[in-house]
Amino acid sequence: MAQINLRAAARQHRGLIRTLGEHLRQMREDTGLSQTSIARAAGIAQAHLSAIEAGETEPSLEVLGRLGAALGADLSLKYFANTGPRVRDRHQLVMEQAALAVAHPRWRPDLEVPVYRPVRGVIDLVFHDQAGSDSVATEAHSLIRRVEQQIRWANEKADALGGLPEFEDRRTCRLLLLRNSTANRELVRVAPDVFAAAYPGRAADAFAALTGPARAFPQAALLWVDIERGRARLLAGPPRGIKVGR
Question: Which CATH number fits domain 92-234: 3.30.390, 3.30.420, 3.40.1350, 1.10.20?
Fold first, then answer.
């Protein structure tokens, strides 16, 4: 598991406290109300509110809620995706290794490729065809909990990859590496049309393109990965009974 940068996190924390204080002060001044009146309405000391607005102290969520009520504003707390999670799917590494092990030498792999616009994130693995113009944005998942979110996020990151200057003249394709498990097979059986629309390429064509010297990669495809005793094997086709990516 990768460790977060504690110093960077502390700097971000201080910046958030200052930004929050400035925002609170601007809202209060826009209403034309004094610190004393807002503090009294929120049930806190005026000196405490002054310190909050100056970014010198960290208010509790309860105090922030009270200040919002006093100002006639709703409080919202939300995480925004940036460069991707620091905690990885524990099977992701061996799934990527399975793809790297069988990839033809014409494919140059890049791991953990960051993208910035229109979304910020990290693509697990990108294969670049050195003999052609295809780049394959590859995501590896041992379990998908929210299908729509995974598909949307993969699409957005692939689009962002294609928007980078160094990829302007390349065709961006998508590949999903999915663990061959009972839960995932059942998920695909429940929503076959959704997966077929998101990954219309035949698994056999994608496997042949990844492992062979010349075939173009399908626009988007799904390949399954067997994992047993910590070792992974990329399958040339879908598991029995699965119709997506035939």
Answer: 3.40.1350
Task: Encode pLDDT of 11-46 as tens digits.
Answer: 778 888 988 998 899 888 888 889 999 999 999 999
Apex 158 CA angle, 122 and 106, nearest 5: 90
For tokens 């092990």, what's the residue? 101
Matching residue, tokens 């056999």? 204
Give CA–CA dist 83/112, Å, rounded: 10
Task: Extract the tokens encoding 133.
Answer: 């113009």
Q: 162 CB contacts (<8 Å, ≥6 apart)?
A: 135, 168, 170, 172
pLDDT tens figures, 144-180: 878 888 888 889 999 999 888 888 889 999 999 999 9
* DSSP annotation of 143: -
**Alpha-carbon gap, residue 46 to 48, rounded angstroms:** 5
Distance in angstroms (rounded) separating the CA atoms of residues 174 and 219: 6
